[in-house]
Amino acid sequence: MKEIDCKGLACPGPVLRTKDVLENSRPDVIKVIVDNEASKQNVKRFLESQNYTVNIETDGSLFHVIGSDNAASQVPDEVHQTPESNEDKKKILVMIGTDRMGYGDDELGKKLMLNFLGTLKEMGEDLWRLVLVNNGVKLTIEGSDALPVLKELAHSGVYILVCGTCLTYFDLLEKKQIGETTNMLDVVTSLQLADKVINL
Amino acid sequence: MSKVRIKDYIDPEMTILDVVSQFRSTEKVFKKYDKEVGACLCCEALFDPLWKVAEQYNLDLDKLMSDLKDAAKAW
Question: Among partner residues A11, A16, A186, which is closest to B21 by beta-carbon distance?
Answer without folding.
Answer: A16
